[in-house]
């Protein structure tokens, strides 16, 4: 099993400057490689591949020993592969008939990660194993950087990445052969319904609240955005204002992830089988503004709903839940969400009128009344168990 471990770095001021220079040089390499591909195709109709650009890398390094030559060759190859992956995704979207989105040049705020594909090649995790109190990662051109290792690393470290978030630096370890940590069986099963009023409602009637982290920080974010709008572009004050806005958003992101981990762990510890709706969150949060010829309706209301869904972090929670369920040996089942909120859990009658409000469900056929989210969670559980039985019988 593969898992990722993220730790905060504690670089010195000199190391932080080297990390920033490393990130900037990899960004310049990415942009230069993109320009190479664009120019070659526009001028000569030639498609440049990853292999062509990787072969030229040694000459680039030789001509710029104090710049590109300082960093790991394999990390620069990883940056070129990142560009190649962007082009492959572009052509896949073209083939599928979706909006293509041609690969773009990376600005300073849109390139924040450098990857070393192999531990020991330009990088080394736990580079000072004999140190009695601290952990270190060694990065070529930077040195031994102290790591705040708040939990043990399991498995075999395969790749190492360094990411910048505002003024913070993180190291991300991707590990193979991570042993599973199965939990004892409980015999319990649960269906869950994702919502905005409550983040999760289970088929047992339990409600896990939605803390609305973005809404809680809305006033501070609004003040920071207004302060940013008054700053002159290119000024040092504007750079600091941008950093303040980014720091507030980063804090919200960390809060949302932390809450998702805690909520998912509680579910995994208490249930052997968990069933959830297979939600298409990107489709659910698509704008309702429409076009000039066919403007949308209830745009403001839809915008508010989209903001609430994204603030709840459904996608983050489901991703974390899948990882924890796999590690704990729990079974996770995704089912089609169609009509789960309109179907009566008692008689099976399906009607839009069954759901009177967001919270109240009353069947127009049998009169069954229940909390709407609990009713939907029960239907989700039944659909999941039916899929499970069909798969076992096949």
Automatic annotation (TrEMBL):
Q: Which residues form the Probable transposase IS891/IS1136/IS1341 domain?
A: 181-287
| Top-level taxon | Bacteria
UniProt keyword annotation of Thylakoid present? no
> Which residues does the UniProt record annotate as the domain Cas12f1-like TNB?
314-379
Keywords annotated in UniProt: DNA recombination, DNA-binding, Endonuclease, Hydrolase, Metal-binding, Nuclease, Transposition, Zinc
Indicate yes or no for the key word Zinc.
yes
Name one molecular function that GO assigns to this entry.
endonuclease activity
Q: Name one Pfam family in it.
A: HTH_OrfB_IS605
Q: What InterPro entries has UniProt attached to this entry?
A: Cas12f1-like_TNB, RNA-guided_DNA_endo/Transpos, Transposase, Transposase_put_HTH
Domain Transposase putative helix-turn-helix stretches: 1-43
Q: Which family does it belong to?
A: In the C-terminal section; belongs to the transposase 35 family.
Task: Name the NCBIfam families on file.
Answer: guided_TnpB
List the protein's name.
Answer: RNA-guided endonuclease InsQ/TnpB family protein
The record lists the organism as Planomonospora corallina
